[in-house]
Design brief:
852 residues; Maltoporin, Chain A; five-stranded mixed beta sheet
Length: 852
């Protein structure tokens, strides 16, 4: 991997910070007197919650038997986080992918979303998207006590954690003795459009020496307006100039909300017995309004060639798309179990039921065939300027009131429901058979049933008696780009009411070839041991997973539907070893070797397909896909040079076989995918998913957290945190002549930097995040669509009121996100040809937290 100048500078800077901490440490580690030490400890607990939570997180990290990062609850509460994705994005090696400015997915160490497993209190749950991909925007940060980000997995963790295993640890009612109450409420706005933001959450628990009970509730509502411009651009090979074939002007409105609630009941009848039941429901809902115009400048309409940067076309085709739609995904997970001791053994038995939903219902009135004349200026490509005129003239016209020859109703629907049952048994004991050793073994059975359909787009007629232009309002779009077309908001809710009064309520409709039906069973067993020595320990063991799946669906040929099914099973042996060496009391070296398996998503595996026997074409899933297999190594050096401080460097490598990607290609024998319909050895165009080869990810992480304790009071309240990750990845796509591509989600450089101060009950934190370009997804069969570099600057302020209120504590808070008004850009092949630009503005929230 060749490093650019920027990467070299980042690496050099990080190494300087890492090295300089050796000089800082002796100063910050000077030991005060016992009396002074007691005063400092009291001050830390009362006035420095950031430092306190960092100290606890680093303590757990140092004592862990694998490469792991910890986020403590107070740290989460002192970041301006909308959801868990925002919290995780500050961990070294983790990067956020956003949708309309809101954190949604996590690329774990440059890997695709599917390579990360998510769990609640150690119980892994299916991802809401395709059964494999976790959606972190549906989980608010406040539900967690801590998050363990396992970067090198041990045999007692699921094999699907190819990149990492994220364990969300919820609060226990025994965490606080007696009654404990935490309440929080906040209000704010997004400055683009001045739309409201609300957040409310509460948690209450009670425990005595036998029984503990806890309940929580969280609700967040974020009004939003999103500027959006989308393009079809090309580079003229003769002049090397950028030409614009079409441009979309879009304004999205609405609100996004997440709601979460649940509770825990624990019973401890004896010191060696613990019984519990935990339940959590969390949902994300996006209520979206769309106002969109598509302007088609292609020269084949008039024969007048396009000109670069600026120009005029006398005839431009116009489409208008509107929407009052809803996206929803949810997770409901309940675990019941117990832990008890018998002799030298500790046994844990757990049963879990999880249900996830992922539904989208987008009815889009689509008007087509109108014409205008237009001049354009794309000198500043991310803020195109269009002026609209009557066709063939320079006379301005109102784009909102055009007459369209065709008015249609486009219905976009997605639905996938997953029900999963899990049974898990673990046994652990101390033994001297291999020296000072802890032996652990367990079995697990997963039963998953998925039903639904993949992306469906159906188009039909729009009710003739409804005049869309009657719903045009006088309100111009809110925008930070420009609104040169003078677009006005549509009353989308009123429009939907009007056409549903004619059509009746719209219900999803799916073509037979889009149906998904999966029955999956995964049986796992593991055995591992941790053997301790004077110099550290070794963790070693093996996990075995047997997968059995069947898929049912439909094969559609010439309008005739035939039920089809397919089944398969495979067995994976996944060994792992971790060596943890205490070079000194504050210096730790780790090295590990791990293995994993990533199974195809349910949409990819579906048996359903549509066959065109005239052209020998198939569109559908690929039940013959192989699971992706990984083999990896990790190494890290961690220096805990002072309390709540660390300087570390880590390297890792993953080799991945059978990388799954989307493509359209000609397969030599179409009868494999349509037996009895396409003849043997018939070349067939197949639009589906395929296995690649020789995938690999490698990376280098540098991390530093330091406290300015060596400075005189009150400057000793300052602290800094920063991390840099350098990444590279690739895989071979056998169906593509160019062959080699990046894995989706791999940014070459990721870095985070925080400056914080806390004293006098005040906690202030300024945080900056950056990641450079990355391939957006392998499910886009072009393999050429990238996100441009993204950055965010956020501020969090907390002030605990100096009130004498006994055990109650009142904290004022204020959070500000995206202070620099950053925009997100996606492009095709080169940054000169963006295909999407989105802006959202900054967000501000302030409120009150009460702890008792």
């Amino acid at each position: 991997m060749r490093l650019s100048g920027l990467k070299r500078r980042l690496l050099a800077t990080s190494c300087v910070i890492f090295a300089s901490s050796y000089f800082i440490a002796p100063v910050s580690a000077q030991q005060p007197s016992a009396e002074t030490q007691a005063q400092i400890e009291e001050l830390v607990v009362r006035a420095r919650p950031i430092r306190d939570s960092q100290a606890e997180a680093l303590r757990q990290k140092q004592e862990a038997d694998n490469v792991v990062d910890i986020i403590a609850a107070d740290t989460i509460g002192r970041f301006p986080d909308q959801n868990l994705a925002d919290s995780l994005g500050r961990i070294p090696g983790l990067a956020i992918e956003r949708d309309q400015g809101q954190a949604r997915f996590i690329n774990f160490r440059g890997a695709p979303f599917r390579y990360t497993s998510i769990a609640f209190d150690g119980i892994d749950v299916p991802g809401a998207e395709g059964g494999r991909v976790p959606r972190f925007d549906s989980f608010p940060s406040v539900i967690t006590s801590a998050i363990a980000v396992n970067k090198a997995v041990t045999p007692d963790m699921p094999g699907e954690a190819v990149a990492g295993f994220i364990d969300i640890q919820t609060f226990s009612p025994f965490q606080y003795e007696g009654l404990n109450v935490a309440l929080e409420g906040g209000y704010g706005n997004q400055n683009l459009g001045d739309v409201a933001i609300e957040k409310y959450n509460g948690r209450m628990s009670y425990s005595n020496d036998k029984v503990g009970a806890l309940a929580f509730y969280s609700f967040n509502k974020r009004g939003r307006i999103t500027d959006n411009r989308e393009f079809d651009l090309e580079i003229d090979p003769a002049s090397n100039a950028v030409l614009m074939n079409s441009v979309d002007f879009r304004s999205y409105r609405g609100d996004r909300r997440d709601e979460s609630y649940g509770g825990t009941l624990e019973f401890r009848p004896a010191d060696d017995v613990q019984l519990f039941i935990r339940t959590l429901y969390s949902a994300f809902i996006d209520l979206e309004e769309r106002n969109q115009f598509v302007f088609d400048f292609r020269p084949d309409i008039t024969g007048i060639p396009l000109t670069p940067n600026t120009g005029y076309q006398p005839v431009v085709l116009v489409q208008r798309l509107l929407e009052d739609g809803k996206y929803k995904n949810s997770t409901w997970t309940t675990t019941a179990g117990g832990e008890f001791m018998s002799g030298d053994w500790t046994f844990t038995l757990q049963g879990n039921y999880t249900k996830t939903t992922n539904d989208s219902n987008l009815p889009i009135p689509l008007s087509a065939g109108a014409t205008v004349a237009a001049s354009y200026d794309i000198t500043e490509i991310e803020k195109p300027v269009l002026n609209i005129f009557s066709t063939g003239t320079m006379t301005p016209t109102d784009v909102n009131l055009l007459t369209y020859p065709a008015n249609l109703l486009l219905r976009v629907d997605i639905a996938l429901d997953i029900e999963a049952w899990k049974f898990k048994f673990d046994a652990e004991r101390e033994t001297n058979l291999f020296g000072d050793t802890t032996f652990k073994a367990g079995v697990q059975a997963d039963f998953r049933d998925a039903k639904g359909a993949t992306f469906a787009a159906n188009i039909g007629g729009f009710p003739a008696g409804v005049n869309i232009n009657d719903f045009v309002t006088d309100k111009l779009w809110d925008t930070d780009f420009n609104n040169s077309i003078m677009g006005r908001n549509i009353d989308n809710l009123g429009l939907r009411d009007a056409f549903e009064a004619v059509t009746g309520p719209l219900t999803p409709s799916y073509a037979d070839d889009l149906i998904v039906g999966i029955d999956e069973k995964i049986y796992a067993g593991y055995a591992m041991a941790t053997t301790r020595f004077d110099w550290g320990n070794i963790v070693y063991g093996v996990r075995m997973e047997a997968t059995n799946f069947s898929t049912t669906g439909n094969q559609v040929v010439g309008g005739v539907t035939t039920p089809v099914d397919f089944s398969n099973n495979y067995f994976n042996v996944l060994p792992g070893v971790h060596v943890n060496v205490d070079l000194d009391d504050d210096l730790k070296f780790r090295v590990s070797a791990t293995t994993g398996v990533s199974r195809p998503t349910y949409e990819e595996l579906r048996a359903s397909s549509r066959v065109n026997v005239i052209n020998n074409e198939i569109n559908g899933g690929n039940p013959f896909l192989k699971a992706e297999k990984s083999y990896g190594a990790d190494a890290s050096l961690e220096w805990y040079f002072s309390e709540a401080s660390i300087a570390s460097i880590g390297a890792y490598y993953r080799a991945i076989d059978n990388v799954i990607y989307a493509d359209t290609t000609v397969v030599p024998d179409g009868s494999l995918y349509a037996p009895g319909i396409i003849g043997p050895n018939t070349p067939t165009t197949f639009n589906s998913f395929f296995n690649g080869q020789d995938g690999e990810i490698l990376g280098l992480e540098l991390n530093f957290i330091g406290q300015a304790e060596f400075l005189p009071y009150p400057f000793d309240g300052f602290g800094v945190a920063g991390n840099v990750t350098l990444l590279d990845s690739s895989f071979k796509a056998p169906t593509r002549p160019q062959g080699k591509f990046n894995l989706p989600g791999t940014s070459d450089v990721i870095y985070n930097a925080s400056l914080f101060y806390e004293n006098f009950g005040l906690s202030v934190r300024l945080n900056y995040q950056y990641r450079d370009d990355w391939l957006s997804t392998t499910e886009n069969d072009s393999l050429t669509e990238y996100w441009a570099p993204e950055d965010r600057l956020d501020l969090s302020v907390r002030y605990t009121l100096p009130l004498d209120t006994g055990d109650a504590k009142f904290t004022l808070f204020a959070d500000a996100n995206n202070l620099t008004n950053s925009v997100d850009v996606r492009y095709v092949n080169t940054r000169r040809t963006p295909n999407q630009v989105e802006g959202f503005g900054a967000r501000y929230v302030a409120g009150l937290r009460i702890d008792y």
